[in-house]
């Protein structure tokens, strides 16, 4: 199982899990007191759909982001393509975001920040902010390959862990203005380079 999100009072968890022989799994809502679970990765008719592990949920648990090869929108006509959808946790409705990257919600729920990976445009590494209100992508060039991203409350404060073959660093990125501030380098945490899971590193909301 992989924890996607936990409610503020700790009573509800959103969890991704899969069978041993199936990389794509399901997303469940779990009552942390009783262990009761409900599959919430379902289509409009309530049928379970396979989704991959990388999803997120807003801080207020109202919106789930998932990625699937299932065509859940009539306009989604490319077979077996991985597409990002938003699920309204109150109504169950699904919204296809054909241009959205899979990433993390900002704490205020206004944007998605593409996390990890090694995206390049003409050889330039970058970070993507997807504005949910305007449905637009904003690209911020980075000095090195991004490996992990820590997202604070709003899109103006994102920490990006970057690395080259010689050095590892941390950049503070304001994705609203495109400003990149170098925070730290030469810290030897090369063992993180093949993982986006920085489980023992945190960013406070007012950092």
Please describe what this structure looks like:
The protein is mainly beta and 207 residues long. It has strands at residues 2-6, 12-17, 26-31, 37-39, 56-57, 63-68, 83-88, 94-97, 103-105, 111-114, 120-121, 124-131, 136-141, 145-151, 158-163, 168-174, 179-185.
Number of strands: 17
Order of helices and strands: EEEEEEEEEEEEEEEEE
Structural class: mainly beta
- Rg for CA atoms: 17 Å
Question: Whole-number average pLDDT?
Answer: 82
Low-confidence stretches are: 187-205
In angstroms, what separates the terminal alpha carbons? 30 Å
How many helical elements? 0
Topology of this protein?
Blueprint: E1 2-6, E2 12-17, E3 26-31, E4 37-39, E5 56-57, E6 63-68, E7 83-88, E8 94-97, E9 103-105, E10 111-114, E11 120-121, E12 124-131, E13 136-141, E14 145-151, E15 158-163, E16 168-174, E17 179-185
Antiparallel strand pairs: 1-2, 2-3, 3-4, 5-6, 6-7, 7-8, 9-10, 10-12, 11-12, 12-13, 14-15, 15-16, 16-17
Features:
single chain; 207 residues; mainly beta; 4-stranded antiparallel β-sheet; 0% helix; globular
Summarize the structure.
The protein has 207 residues and is mainly beta. Helix content is 0%, strand content 43%. It contains no helices and 17 strands.
